[in-house]
Amino acid sequence: MKKITLLSLLFCGSVFSQIINTAPYILTVDELKAWTQNGPTASTDLISNVPLATRFINADTQFNPALNNMQIAYLPDGMNNFGNYYGEQSQFNLYNFTHWAYIDKFVWFGGTSSQSIQIPSSPWANAAHKNGVKIFGNVFFSPTAFGGTTATLQNFLEQDGSGDFVAIPKMIAIMQYYNFDGWFINQETATTAIVAELMHDFVRDLTAQAETLGKEIMWYDAMRLTGAVGWQNRLNVNNSPFVQDDQDGDGAFETRVSSSIFINFGWGNTFPPLSRARALTIGRSQYEVFTGADIWPGRNQGNFATNGNTFMGNLHENTYTAFTSLGLFAPNCVYNNSTYTNFNNDPTDYASFYAAETRMFAGDDNNPATIDATGWKGFCNWVPETSVISNDFYTNFNTGHGIKKFSIGALASSQSWHDMNKQDILPTWQWAFSPTGSLSASWDFEDAFQGGSSVKITGNLPAATPIDLMLFKTKILISATPGESTGLEFTYKCADLATSKAKMLIVFSDEPSQRYEFDYIPFINSAFNGWANGGADFLGFEGREIAMLGLRFYSEEAVANYSINIGGFQSNTIFLDRSVFDGDTNAVIVSYPLINQILFTIDWTNARKIDYSVYTLQGQRVKSDSIAVNKTTGYKFDPTGISTGTYIVKFTDENNTTVTKKILVK
After folding, report:
1. By the 8 A CB rule, do 362 and 431 touch?
2. What pairing do the DSSP bridges indicate for beta strands 532-537 and 72-75?
3. In a domain, 401, yes or no
């Protein structure tokens, strides 16, 4: 990769994106050592403003509970050429990624002999952090054949009068200022033993400072302590000193040098168990060893679809016990290799790009809920999925780019765009249908509720046969606190909004093998431009935790060419007050006999008058009134002056007994 440009304009028809391949995104060694946050090579554009989300694994809700602790470090080759931008770009077919649930570290891999320091862009850092994925900058020293020199290394390893490395505080400051999570050190320049020892000490000192801040340093399996570059293709005595070292020779391996190591690609079926053995010998976890798989077709491990079962099998002692973690190199092949797609050149070819990425993780059947009987099994077969989804979760299934832009269901723009900052939390599982094969899911860029995309479900719905689509792994606690109410809503569009054939599907963490379906009252509002909301509350389920969230599709009669778009999911906990909610929840029934009409049917024992107050989801009271009660009483609620949306109504009798209900103002 020898081409150096001040900026690249990636053209597609009449639209383009601006990719910046100089400072502040890329620094030379001299620019690194001179860097300050107020200097000419720094920019607030690169600051990630999304904190690293906390992720979790719940084995009980994995489709395969036996999966182990294998992690994935994800290294698209040449990320600077894909993502060095800030702000919305006017090109749809830039690189994208949607399977964050399966990866743990994202490395901004790239560089040339002069462009050594690669810094992640903030849109991508924000997207990674939103999903709990750590993102790494890259330090690259190229092989001698491509311009790497000992002089460049010596410049990088400069020490001050106290013997401290000049570049370390700069690298720490850059991580802190831009809010990314680590450095990947890729040193492939052949050099002297003296310089190699200095590099060892540099990595040791950098790691010590980085880890005190919660950051990480990953070393690449190339240079040895002799200064020679010799890829070991496993963790052994030659490269393990760059992970954990026995510097005093007492056999204790007391010196931590790096957080993890990325192993080169020539390992076959014999080296992974040796990597694990060496990791345990030096007192480190086998999962801190990332055995590299180069999946660019025609190189090393090659095409994952034809070779993946073999190389993933070689990484495992048995079906589910991995020798090491996985370092996935050049997974951008699903974007810019014609084996899979032409999307990088043709924006209309987006379906093949997304199909290839889904296939990479979900296998040939495109379904992480099932094990492929034949063909490629998908990385989901070996790697447990994670999630960050807890209370107050929302998504509009916005992938972060589009050929159009929508706002509340209405077309807002017909211009192509791309901005990873706008990517929502996307489904944990793509696409985990119950195994009937009659329905399928895909990204729809022609219609959306908000942003640029929705999920489109199509196929033939069989008679009296429920089809489940599990979408999200969650930790949503249904509040049991008096004065609080937890609810879920989803936004959808189909031919008949009143009979969508879809129900909300819930799995609770204390009952992982049982699925509960929840009906809903469609909230059909002209302001939603053909979309509707379906909401469910969880009276009777207070204190339980929602661990899986999805949809169930069902019809008593067969439906040919069934189609529905899902435009959003939202969970929220509504805060009212701390009074005791002890009333009979059937004392008030809410119904919608006509469009734009809400009826309260009140059957409240011994009550003569009921006071009610209407609250927004944020707890603001917007209306209060009283209802005279005589046995079973019907009351037409007047929503005049209240904006469309979801509200909570609190009913109170003369004894301060209260009942709450959710209403939808249309």
Report:
1. yes
2. unpaired
3. yes
Q: What is the mean pLDDT of residues 85-98?
A: 96
Specify the CATH number for the domain of residue 533: 2.60.120.260
Count of beta carbons in the 10 Å neighbourhood of residue 188: 18
Residue with tokens 């602790």: 69
CA dist., res. 662 & res. 244, Å (int): 58
φ, ψ for residue 474, nearest 5 deg: -140, 165
Q: Where are the beta strands (DSSP E) in 452-580?
A: 454-461, 467-477, 484-494, 502-508, 511-518, 522-524, 532-537, 545-553, 559-575
Q: Within 10 A of 55 (CB to CB), how many other CB atoms are there? A: 17
Please write the tens of the pLDDT for every residue from 15-63. Answer: 456 899 999 999 999 999 999 999 999 999 999 999 999 999 999 999 9
Q: Is residue 58, in this structure, part of any structural domain at all?
A: no
Residues 465 and 594 in one domain: no
Measured CA to CA, the distance from residue 253 to residue 542 in angstroms comes to: 51
**Over 60: is that where the pLDDT of 7 sits?**
no
Single residue among 317, 332, 347 that ends a domain in this structure: 332
How many domains is the chain built from?
Answer: 3
Do 159 and 277 lie in a common domain?
yes
- Domain end position, chosen among 310, 332, 354: 332
- Exposure pattern of 437-449 as b/e (b: 16+ CB <10 Å)? eebebbbbbebbb
| β strands within 332-445, DSSP E | 389-390, 394-395, 401-402, 405-407, 410-413, 417-418, 432-433, 439-444
Residue 29 sits in the same domain as residue 161:
yes
Mean pLDDT (the chain) is 91
Host domain of residue 649: 585-665
Sign of the CA dihedral running 241, 243, 248, 251? negative
Q: Which residues on adjacent β-strands are paired with residue 18?
A: 9
Query: What mean pLDDT do residues 553-577 have?
Result: 86
Q: Is the peptide bond before 24 cis (omega within 30 degrees of 0)?
A: yes
Q: Do 508 and 606 fall into the same domain?
A: no
